Amino acid sequence: MTLHSTPILYLNMGGEMLYVLRQRLKAQKIDVDKTIQVLDDVTTALLNPKILSPIFEESPMIGVSQLRATLESVALSSIMKLDKSSMDKLFDLMIMMVKYQLKAATGPREVILIILNHIDAMRDMVSDVSAQKCVSMVHQMIVNFYGCLTFDEVWNARQSCLKELEPYNVRVSILLRRGLQNDDASFNVTPQKYDEKYGEHRNTLATMRIKDVSPETCCGGSLDTFGDRKTLLGKNIYLPTYGITESARRDSQQLLRDCGAKAELGMLAVQLGTEETNYERPFTLNLLSNMDEENVNNANREIDTEGNNAKRSNAGNEKPKLNEDYKAKLDTVYADFFEDEHEGLKRSMDLLDLLDEIE
């Protein structure tokens, strides 16, 4: 059994736990201050040097049951309340996501990049200064620990992790929806842009240390603090932006900027009088009910020459009649929106309803 497997399981599972917690806190509309506190507390506990010290020792891999006990204590380090059912579901999500990621990894360098994707996400989640320092420290520990290993040593560590996770076979709805898992809980490993093709290059790279090989040799994934990891594995699959490449995101942002600039120039031209001012809005939204046109027309027909001004004055003073059905709908939406405000937020948050349905 390899002596370098434990950090892979611990940090990847911890990262997946934070992904789920963040998503549920947002979905349940937990107060922003409470959300920040939970993520800071859990991240700080996860990366506690007292816990990481034995994790990064070159020793036989810690079993899943022991890792679960540690991660449970981490999850409960903040103001949340997790009962056994909640923890079971959370743990199944963590296990299956990490198992899929390691199964889909195309080479030893990608195994490290998966961990760093989780670390990058932690850095983005936390706001506490001490938590940020913990994240930076752990990033350097990962690079130092695995950078000095050979490609085969890292690959064997990945194999040991998969062997440890082999008994766990749970269907996860988000993987099923994305076509990454079958009904029998097996995985569909689809080709990705990042592909080390380690099987083809193993004879050349097996005995070389990770840090001695140029990133371009392995698809260019960077191990730097703010480098481009290239691989999707290890990123937050629950985010709507998951799978969107950086280039596509930049193109979308540039398009929005171009459209905004064009609209502003058009408005400026209208104001300066350099264009015709017959600009019309695409539509007008009226939240009030339509006036009773028939009554208005009848009233207009009754206006005579002598009483013209008086009639118009009365018509101008009339208040528009609200659509009672629409007002009732607005009142319902308003009540739903502020329901939590009236009830208040309990200090202990029960996250029983986790993001994914475990089937």
From TrEMBL:
Region (Disordered) location: 301-321
Polar residues biased stretches: 301-316
Gene Ontology cellular component terms for the protein in this record: cytoplasm; plasma membrane
List, alphabetically, the PANTHER family matched.
OXIDORED-NITRO DOMAIN-CONTAINING PROTEIN, PROTEIN OSCP1
The protein in question is named Protein OSCP1
Tell me which species this is from.
Temnothorax curvispinosus
Q: Source gene?
A: LOC112458249
